[in-house]
Amino acid sequence: MELLVALILVGCVLLTGGLLAVTPWLMPKTECFAVTVPEGARRDPRLAGFRRRYALIVGVATLACSGLLAAFAASAGSSLGEGTAFVGVLVGAMLVPTVLSFGLMLHFRRRVMAVKRAEGWAAPRPQAAAVVAEDDVPHAISLAWNLLYVPVVLVTATIGVVAWPAIPDQIPLHADFSGTVNDWAPKSIGSVFFPVLVQLFMIACFLFCHWSILRSKRPTSPGAPVTSALAYGLFARAQSIYLLATGVLVTAALGLTFMLSAMGVLSLGGAGAIVAVAVIPVLLGSVAIALVYGQAGSRLFRRMEAAGANAGVPSGAVMPADDDDHWKLGIFYVNRDDASLFLPERFGVGWTLNLGRPAAWAVVGGFVAVMALFVVLVFIAIG
Questions:
Q1: DSSP code at position 128
Q2: CB under 8 Å to 22, separation ≥6 — which residues?
Q3: Which of 42, 181, 191, 271 has a CA that sits 20 to 30 A from residue 332's CA?
Q4: Residue 4, burial from CB neighbour count under 10 angstroms (0-12, 13-18, 19+)
Q5: What is the pLDDT of residues 172-196, one digit of tens each?
Q6: CA distances from 9 to 4, 34, 276 (A)
């Protein structure tokens, strides 16, 4: 089991780092390292060189971290689960590509901004995109689909009720990477139904993410409002379906396997291995959507453009908009004049908050409060 878990973790590092390495090619063609540029600038040899150097450095770092993690796991062998050394190497292998990616983004962002100033790239005047009716384009699936979580929770809770007499007096709570249990809890309502509590917390997080996609600002191109709205709508729909499928898979895997572990039907190490295997399609799905659709549907939009779906799109040195001043460090959006609470990220695949809105800080505070409540309930449940 140690080998299986180690291989999955190495794969996670490779996929995550690989996605970070290709991020510059997943962004809209009017953005380069979180800087607004003309559409024609995407072919500028200086900007292309920045992207290649970024990808090379992040890619090499990812391979090095993956190799180090694999070598450490191989050398540890059967003693992999002993001590905290492997955990430290794992955390480092995950953090290094992420931190390096952010640092390189900031470095090349400054380089792109210097090129932008030297070339005089600027939006000559405010431009507005035609309004596209909501019913005319795809959008994220309805929140009603989240009712699929109900049977998952009910089945998990029912197993706990039915199997209560067969559950031993001591319930395994934690195991090392070798599958050896190193923490137990006395049988109680809280410890037995602890997996249900975890499921409810995760469902709340997935539900909020789904709601934020539905409430997000829709980016549009003034020269191709319908095509860009269609591309974003398909991206949002794909992401919402992926989010729901991921949520159902992960909550079911966590809840059911750990409930079976409490019954003694499945070892806690085996439960952890099943959850680790369940992570594989989650990561593959994330990478697939990013590569097929691009951030906010940008890659899909370019394919539509190549197919002649929007022959009138402006190009060359014209920029439809420039809101660089509102993006702090390339990832934090602060604009008090923008009514949107959620919007697509500037560097990466997904959504972020408009920190210029008081409601955004209410969301952050609410998440911290919910997290704190969850931690308190966990301590109460497992004693």
A1: -
A2: 55, 291
A3: 42
A4: exposed
A5: 877 766 667 777 888 889 888 989 9
A6: 9, 30, 8
Which pair of tokens denotes residue 7? 């291989």
Question: Who's near 171: CB < 8 A, 6+ residues apart?
Answer: 184, 185, 186, 187, 191, 192, 262
Taking only the tens place, the pLDDT of each residue in 329-370 is 999 999 999 999 999 999 999 999 999 999 999 999 999 999
Residue 210 in tokens: 């789904």
Tell me the C-alpha distance between 306 and 369, whole Å.
47
185 beta partners: 171
46: CB partners within 8 A, 6+ apart: 111, 115
Rounded to 5°, angle at Cα 299 from 354 and 215: 30
Distance CA 297, CA 46 (A): 25
d(CA 55, CA 23): 8
DSSP string, 208-230: HHHHHHHHS-----TT-HHHHHH
Distance CA 213, CA 217 (A): 9
Q: Which residues, other chains included, contact 167 with Cβ-Cβ below 8 Å and sequence gap of 6+? A: 160, 187, 192, 262, 263, 264
DSSP strands (E only) in the chain? 31-32, 35-36, 170-175, 181-186, 327-328, 332-333, 342-344, 351-353
For β-strands 342-344 and 351-353, DSSP reports them as antiparallel
- Supply the pLDDT for residue 131: 53
Greatest pairwise CA separation for the chain in angstroms: 75
pLDDT at 6: 81
Q: What tokens does 198 get?
A: 């975890």
The model's pTM is 0.90
Name residue 304's amino acid.
Answer: M
C-alpha angle 137-139-143 in degrees, rounded to nearest 5: 150
Long-range contacts of 209-214 (CB under 8 A, 24+ apart): 209/243, 210/140, 210/143, 210/146, 210/240, 210/243, 210/244, 211/143, 212/341, 212/342, 212/351, 213/140, 213/239, 213/240, 213/243, 213/342, 213/351, 214/139, 214/140, 214/143, 214/240
CB 310 within 8 A of CB 218: no
Confidence of residue 262 (pLDDT cuts 50, 70, 90): confident
